[in-house]
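#struct-help
A.M.: can someone run this one for me? Single chain, 276 residues.
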Amino acid sequence: MTVGEFLNEATATLKQAGVESPRLDTLILLEDALKEDRAVILAYLENELPEPTLTDLRNKIKARAQQIPLAYIRGHAPFYGREFFVTEHVLVPRPETEAMITLLVTHAPKHVQHIADIGSGSGCLGITAALELQEAGHAKPHTHLYDTSESALEVAAHNIERHRLEHACIHQRDLLHDIIEHPDVILANLPYVPEHLEINAGAKHEPAEAIFSGADGLDHYKRFWREAGELAHQPQLIITESLPSQHHVNAELARAAGFYLTDSEGFAQAFAPLTD
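D.P.: on it. Structure tokens below:
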């Protein structure tokens, strides 16, 4: 079978399965398999696909037709200009989460020694935060990735190694309970989807415990802010992600814990400690 014939066949299969971008997804998988740029692939559609490559590609198209996220099939996903290893044990990094990094770079304290990524999943947020602060001229911060899932932390550890991040470690902890360092910055992209809300077909393949959080979607944040208010050493900056419709309530929870809203962008909010 030629590349062009496979492209047409796979695109039709994915389109029939209701995948949103059937041709693009097929081209991405072809790029991975052939290790060629898309322009080169499209210029040589008459090239024959080796049988082992064709078999592997058809298996991946079959998985994609079942709405399995493309990132899981490929084994990696982009975030803020970098690639991160992902498995079905972590959420797929999302473009809207990049706003948290934008707020961090804008509002970072002058000296950031410790970063805590709470509910880190793949670690893309905490790792990116450390790397972006370094690129902005900050000294290399100590980066701590926290999650309750051992499988997620294994993915995070892989990404720490992949990005050669110094002074980084993982901890199996629940939110801020027994946090082991005094973070200057806390990043918290916690579950925030109300349990009754319908999610798309792809998200149904992701870990539900990383998505849903009670009737209003704020169970995790209610506990997070209570624990934040009890910290002996208050962080200088806390950045969270939630639905824009939840931002008002999230800000009220933060204020009750001793933090006020300083800025927001998209799904992200930045908080600083209240001062007398």
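A.M.: thanks! The chain has two domains: 3-66, 89-273.
D.P.: also worth noting: DSSP finds ten helices and nine strands in the chain.
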